[in-house]
Amino acid sequence: MIEVHDLHRHFGGFRAVDGASVRIETGSITGLIGPNGAGKSTLFNVIAGVLPPTSGRVVMDGEDITGLPPHELFHKGLLRTFQLAHEFSSMTVRENLMMVPGAQSGETIWKTWFQRGRIAAEERTLRRKADEVLEFLTIRHLADELAGNLSGGQKKLLELGRTMMVDAKIVFLDEVGAGVNRTLLMTIADAIIRLNKERGYTFCVIEHDMDFIGKLCDPVIVMAEGKVLAKGSAQDIMKNEAVIEAYLGTGLKNKDMAQ
After folding, report:
1. What range(s) does the ABC transporter domain occupy (predicted)?
2. Above 90 in pLDDT, residue 101?
3. Half-sphere exposure of residue 87, counting CA atoms within 13 Å on the CB side?
4. Domain that holds residue 235
């Protein structure tokens, strides 16, 4: 699905991504972990077209997509969420979903005057789709709530729902669990697993919660200092000496030795 070849992204003399090469297989839920400053979010931003690379290539389904802007990648089915949810706070949850698909007839002034029937039909279809998404995510009861009133976890679910309003192929989730209580985090995890198994979504997930990563992800890629340090199952990664040293900490190693 996605192949990243020798990717670099420099900010002056700082090498945020320093020769990273990764492969994200179609149909996988791939985890991306590493200490703060490892280059994870920068890698996401380059793949998703938010930042241009200094050098290197990004390939999706055999097509070179290096440097394409986010709106073009959106139409190719590549979507990216952010650590902080970007909802439209003064609109309802349902309205936030309905506005996602592009090229709606209501966006054209001429059509709002002369094709009102067509616009109304489109809105009915979008409303049904939005309600189906909310039902899938178990937040149908929030449909008419202003998005700005949602909790952090509910906003993360809404962001996930927005990816369901279009034909997403691969979704990059940046710290989807940040600031989310444990119960809602498991709801998010279950939704990701269902989207993967039932609808064929491919995911790449940045997350610090190793229990969350272990529940969701195979394989797991570890970054440190802008480079790929290791790749494997969550179980193998947690036993990797280099990963423990760079990220998980000696406390985990000592805990294992005491058991």
Report:
1. 2-250
2. no
3. 27
4. 1-77+167-247
